[in-house]
């Protein structure tokens, strides 16, 4: 019998499930789509580096000339593996559990890696600035200090100055809408289906949905931005969002704090 995998995520208060952050949600969606059993362990930002070192997960990149340890991370007691980074977790799950729904079907892993980098540069970067203020407010106190410091150092300005109402915010949102429109045109090259690959869900769809989800959690379903994106591109993103509803759940019963 398959033992539950251990999934490490960062808690917030904006969602009733605690789950809010896009990168862990990528891996959580992967687990849910594949139907693999797991339990969540919640970890505050200042504790991430020590946790990763403890379970044998290395840094995923460098920031400010220092190793950067990030979540999500996953431990698999069935194989002894420990992995960080949502893309690498999804690739591991594809390779280790081939009888589940593939997220990189038909040799598409390299192309999806390119899509991930391009989409995040053009959508995630402006989205961070758009939702930074409500994001930091919904973090627990220890994580608030850490996240604020990291984001402000990265963008070179206080969070409150990143997307003030008016021309600056409008320009950021316009850039998101523009690239969502570009992505829709790419997807339209396939015949039918709500997913980037037509009728087959893939990691690329997860990459898109987590940004929509972040916007909805932080700005709300009644916000101007949410309503606009749900109506954009003949409702493509509303249909994708609806298709993912079946996989948007958290193992609340089995979750615990680190």
Folded structure, characterized:
The protein is built from 9 helices and 7 strands, in the order E-H-E-H-E-E-E-E-H-H-H-H-H-H-H-E. It has 258 residues and is an alpha/beta fold. The chain has 2 domains: 5-103, 3-Layer(aba) Sandwich (Glutaredoxin); 108-246, Glutathione S-transferase Yfyf (Class Pi), Chain A, domain 2, CATH 1.20.1050.10. The strands form 2 sheets. It has a 5-stranded mixed beta sheet with strand order 6-5-1-2-7, covered by helices on one side. Helix 1 (22-34) packs parallel to helix 3. The longest helix has 29 residues, at 109-137. The chain is globular, with a radius of gyration of 18 Å.
> Termini distance?
25 Å
Number of discrete helical segments: 9
In sequence order, what are the helices and strands, one letter per element? EHEHEEEEHHHHHHHE
What name is given to the CATH topology of the largest domain?
A: Glutathione S-transferase Yfyf (Class Pi), Chain A, domain 2
Q: Radius of gyration from the CA trace?
A: 18 Å
Largest sheet: 5 strands, mixed
- Order of neighbouring strands in the sheet with most strands: 6-5-1-2-7
CATH class value of the largest domain: Mainly Alpha
- Overall pLDDT, averaged? 96
Instruction: Indicate the overall shape.
Output: globular
Helices and strands: which structural class? Answer: alpha/beta
CATH architecture of the largest domain: Up-down Bundle
């Amino acid at each position: 019998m398959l033992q539950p995998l251990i999934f490490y995520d960062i808690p917030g208060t904006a969602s009733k499930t605690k789950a809010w952050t896009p990168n862990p949600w990528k891996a959580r969606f992967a687990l849910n789509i594949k139907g693999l059993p797991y339990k969540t362990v919640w970890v505050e930002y200042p504790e991430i580096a020590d946790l990763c070192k403890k379970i044998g997960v290395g840094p995923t990149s460098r920031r400010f000339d220092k190793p950067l340890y990030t979540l999500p991370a996953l431990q698999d007691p069935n194989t002894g593996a420990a992995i960080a980074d949502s893309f690498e977790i999804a690739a591991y799950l594809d390779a280790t559990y081939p009888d589940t729904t593939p997220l990189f079907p038909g040799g598409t892993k390299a192309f999806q890696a390119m899509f991930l980098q391009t989409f995040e540069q053009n959508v995630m970067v402006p989205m961070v600035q758009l939702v930074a203020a409500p994001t930091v407010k919904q973090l627990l106190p220890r994580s608030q200090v850490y996240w604020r410091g990291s984001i402000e150092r990265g963008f070179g300005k206080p969070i409150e100055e990143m997307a003030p109402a008016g021309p600056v915010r409008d320009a950021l949102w316009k850039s998101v809408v523009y690239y969502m429109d570009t992505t829709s045109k790419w997807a339209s090259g396939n015949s039918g289906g709500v997913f980037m690959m037509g009728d087959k869900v893939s990691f690329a769809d997860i990459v898109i949905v987590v940004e929509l989800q972040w916007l909805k959690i932080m700005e709300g379903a009644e916000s101007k931005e949410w309503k606009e994106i749900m109506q954009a591109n003949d409702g493509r993103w509303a249909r994708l969002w609806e298709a993912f509803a079946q996989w948007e759940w958290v193992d609340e019963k089995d979750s615990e704090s680190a």
